[in-house]
Amino acid sequence: MKALVINCTLKKSPEPSNTAALAQVVGDWLTENGGVEVEHVRAVDLDLHPGVVSEAVAAGDDWPAVHDKLLGAQILVIASPTWLGRPSSVAQRVLERMDAMLSETDDDGVPVAYNRVAGVVVTGNEDGAHHVISEINGALCDLGYTIPGQSWTYWHLGPGPGPDYLDDERGHDWAHRTGRAMAANLYGTARALAANPLGAPPS
Question: Domain NADPH-dependent FMN reductase-like spans what residues (predicted)?
């Protein structure tokens, strides 16, 4: 089984990413407890052109390779910081490109996002995590991903400016415990769908 973590931080590598650090907790559980092969992608490092198609929209567009990774993974985690109480602009770009998956099916007419599970990781200094989770999960559900119960984790220290996740240990125990529960629920649901896959929707 494979998992893809798309980190939608605004920070390019090799700058440390708070969002990557919390998403790593989820990925580590999947690897250590489920033997899942986990790949982390930092979207801001790629040249993802605007658009709502899976193919390249211009020379140098890196989205087709990400699309291939999505189709190769049974588990997807979208990880985003909170900015102005909303998902990052990078997360929005990723979701817009994924929009093309609405019209993609396999040879049996099954939408390509069916029988895949997804969850969300959020970090930020201000409240709004539940709003970010609901926006991203809503989009992924529209595409056909299965969203298990409690398939998210987040970290923040309340409203207003404050320390970053990597700079303050407060709240880590809860965020990590919730992240491990998230990983377990994603893995269990992915296994259930593999054993009993959804078919094509009724005509």
Answer: 1-135
pLDDT tens-digit readout, 47-91: 999 999 999 999 999 999 999 999 999 999 999 999 988 999 999
pLDDT of 158 strictly over 90: no
The whole-number average pLDDT for the span 94-113 is: 98
**Residue 47 burial (C-beta neighbours within 10 Å; 0-12, 13-18, 19+):** exposed
What pLDDT does residue 178 have? 98
Cα separation of the two ends of the chain: 30
- Which residue type does 185 have? N
The pTM (predicted TM-score) of the whole model is: 0.97
Q: Which conformational region is residue 109 in: left (phi greater than 0), alpha (psi within -120 to 50 degrees), or beta?
A: left
- Quick one: pLDDT at residue 54? 97
- The answer for 35, left when phi > 0, alpha when psi is -120 to 50, beta otherwise, is left
Beta strands at 75-83 and 117-123: parallel, antiparallel or unpaired:
parallel
CA dist., res. 138 & res. 29, Å (int): 25
The SS3 of residue 61 is coil
Q: Token pair of 1, please?
A: 């089984």
Distance of CA 182 to the CA centre of its chain: 12
For residues 189, 68, 35, 6, the Cα torsion angle rounded to the nearest 10 degrees is: -80
